[in-house]
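>> received
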Amino acid sequence: MRIYIVRHGETEANKKGYLQGWSNDPLNENGILLAQLTGRGMKGIRFNHCISSPLSRAKETAEIILRESGNDIPVSFDERIKEMNFGSYERMDIRDEKIVRFLKEPDVNFKFPKGESATELMIRTQEFLKEFIAKDDDKTYLVSTHGCALRAMLNFLYDNPDDFWHGHVPYNCCVNIIEAKDGAPTLIADDKIYYGQELAIDRYKF
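>> returned
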């Protein structure tokens, strides 16, 4: 079994530096380009199934990657891989000191007002991923999700789970690849990009 987990392409909120969470922003022009380049770089991979967060930026990313990689399959959706619910912090500038603190050294048990905590996010996203691993089949899956959700989902596979961000927020359209056999998952590609390094913009370093 192989599972390709991708973060969505860029949105205007990413570009301008705002938290999105459950806000339903579409991809911007650059986000569409990153998804196209990622899909073209994945030509030759035959996906059996594609599952996406229902938020439009993840859905669009999945559809573009499938089209550009030559996979004519439908996209299904799972609420568990939506982005973190930042509650009343959504649309907040990431340069706000409260958000900078979360991006540098997050307290995983801090529950955002009217939202959720990183611990709660890890529970729902890992439940989703572990269900896949338990299938133990020979299929190949594409999963389209979000930056914080991706880190939460893969946290139990990282060498240092205490480093929630695994060094940094994942780049737009980066791909993490899991190979699972006999119920044992291995992360074989970590934040792989299928486009030029000059397009990999880290907007979250402070």
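>> The mean pLDDT is 96.
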